[in-house]
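Format notes (please read before filing issues)

Several people have asked whether sequences and structure tokens are stored in separate files. They are not. Every record keeps both together, in the order shown below: the sequence lines, then the token lines. Line labels are part of the format and must not be stripped during preprocessing.
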Amino acid sequence: MVAVSSKELLTYYLITLQLGETVQSGLPKRSASTASTESINIRHQRQQSQDHQLHDLQQEPSEGKDVPKGEPRPPKSEWVDYIKELQRAHEDDVAWARAKPSIYQIPSYLKDAEKDAYVPQIVSLGPYHHGDKRLSQMEQHKWRCLRHILERTNHRMDYYLGSVKAVEERARTCYDEKFPSMSSEEFVKMMVLDGCFVIELFQGVKGGFKALGYPRDDPVFSSMGGLMHRIQQDMIMLENQIPLFILDRLLGLQHGNPNQKGLVAKRAVRFFEPLMQTDEHSRTRLKYDPLFYEGGLHCLEVYRRSLLRLGTMPEARTWTKRGSRRRQQHIRSVVELREAGINFKQRKTDRFWDIKFKCGTLRIPRLRIHSGTRSLFLNLIAFEQSHFDCSNAISSYVTFMDNLINSPEDVGYLHYCGIIEHWLGSDAEVADLFNRLCHEVAFNINDSYLSELSADLNKYYSLKWNNWRASLKHNYFNNPWTIISVMAAFVLLVLTFTQTFYGVYGYYKPGF
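Then the structure lines:
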């Protein structure tokens, strides 16, 4: 047997597999029994062929055989590793086809730049940050919350462990990592402990922690506790999520109905609403909006849907110039748009994404910015970038605002118009926040619901008459004194013209 190079042998092995599939698919249709028999024979022959090839791959060159010089044959162990990797890749394809993950790990290129926004600082939920020593202090409070639940319901811990154990595989498929080093017992215990902790927080915010048996000055389970805001920020991170059906199951066990759905989603919205309120009416409207339930989702996606389902989201429309390829719609900053005569006004609505442009006026709803806004937006964008068949509504809004805001002057004017309200140190920090939100985000604003609005803005900006009118207004009508001066000059010009007219007219008609 003549030895061949590793590349040629591996190529031959793959071509053989594909050739067998091609031949089988190209056979003419036969009767059911005949087709079944031939299919079995083909599969049997293919398996024998593969076994012989694998056997040949594992054989060392026989003594006395000619081995071409310059083409060293890899050792047997290396060929076995190749075959194992190919088999593992096939298993991964099958697993990904069956699984529908919704809880993703942030890519390193995003996490390296904004680590604090993606990594929890107080509490870990789920497997991604499980066992982190920085977050170990909160573990004792999780056990405290579980003890309170068991005492109130007169249940044993085995009651919850057994129920979650029945859906363990479904829970694992919600994550885009398999966690093979985490045993079944450890995974189920983590789900119960973390899930009960989340539910207890939802219950406490809804009905009060005192009614659940916690003292008024409890360091964690207290509405007045200083940690609550930081815990909310950690619980809204993409890597720190528990499948919603697990939370529904644990809450249902406490109420005697493990199959109930939707209750946790409504309580999650109420728990997270302080993270983004546009005005005083947003809390009431969020509270009574119905939520669409899907078992594979989590609290971050539920909260995202609650923000976007307050009204009808405009459909994404791709804008293209006739006769040209699609191009990125970049809009001007606030300062540049003002110079073109575009006015900015606050839109009275709690739908922060509902931006309108009409008759030269851009109406933007109020946005309140605090220390947790950056983390919230980044995790929402990361979910939209990772999740299949997910709209890019949040990414569209943030990209639009990033284009508008390039400098502290832009922020200052939007603040003057009542569009932006912030509790950061300066307008420069707000400008830096928006300018950093869209780093490393693969997004085309043409595919967003704001694409048509952006095109209208650019069209209005490009009209020369609007620029001339804006320049006239900026130079001669920007304050009362210049207005008075212009009016006085106009009156003087009219009087001068009248005097000249009557002087010339009296010359030709002296008797007038």
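For reference, the curators noted about this record: The longest strand covers residues 343-347. Residues 334-468 form one domain.
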